[in-house]
Amino acid sequence: MRLPPDPSTARVAGPWAHRDVSANGIRLHVAELGDGPLVLLLHGFPEFWWTWRHQLVALAEAGYRAVAVDLRGYGDSDKPPRGYDGFTLAGDVAGLVKALGASRAHLIGHAWGGMLAWTVAAMHQRLVDSVTTIAAPHPLALRHAIRRYPRGQGRASGHVFRFQLPVYPERWLTADGGAAVARLLTAWSGPKWTVSPEFDEVVRRNREAALVPGVAHSAMEYYRWAVRSQLRGDGRRFAEAVDRRLDVPVLQVHGALDPVMLESTAVDSGRWVGAGSQFRSLPEVGHFPHQEAPNTTNGLISGFLAAVQP
Predict the structure, then answer these.
(1) pLDDT of residue 4
(2) What's the pLDDT at 2?
(3) Distance of alpha carbon 87 from alpha carbon 241, whole angstroms
(4) For residues 125 and 247, is the Cβ–Cβ distance under 8 A?
(5) What distance in Å separates the CA atoms of residue 32 and residue 174, rounded to the nearest whole number?
(6) d(CA 56, CA 67)
(7) Nearest to 222 by CA among 73, 110, 97
(8) pLDDT of the residue at 1
């Protein structure tokens, strides 16, 4: 019987340095490269910090201190039984900025990480210099789109509702060595990337990361809180907390072929962005622009950060 991978397998070797940081009462694993203003990179599902390998190098070369974190419940970070609500997750990021010795940071997030970046900028605005979201509409834009367009964004978000079941989603995600991760990555990506030489390694590493004990359950808890909280008081408080125009500029990068987060939903996030914000759509790219088109994405990020850096 094959044993599940040790969490330390998430510490993929590279030009970056790995370390543990205590923030908001838990231990978070980060990969860090470069010196300069802090740029904090927040991954999505079904991934881990390694999704930012291209951006870590590019940002360090551009004069930034780039830090990619395994979010709560992922990779080699702690996997506590609770704390997967928007308030606590935002507290993790805010605490991490302070624990890294910075007073402020530029936040870059993909999918779940992007919606978390929106949240942190609304709840902890004094810690944020800018927000870059990749395949990540504002949380309220996504909520509204699912309700108003059930055959559009609602259908595209079908996995969110399937993940509400107990136990089954975790078993589905980890069955056959994480085969579901491979299917999700393939279905959500643009067709050009899935035939690229890099794609096999991406699938292999993310399948392995999903098999680390505790990751599958933690990943599902993000989705469960997002849906179930809407019927509770904490969901209403969350909506009130993030329903504000940000004080900082936002760069939105979106793949035109993204089948999960529709471009129209991302465009509807415009009511929450600050002055100097930008929206960029990448043709022939799916749900993972930072991996599918890293050079283009890195150029957009570097140009945006250079323009907004205090």
Answers:
(1) 81
(2) 65
(3) 9
(4) yes
(5) 29
(6) 7
(7) 73
(8) 54
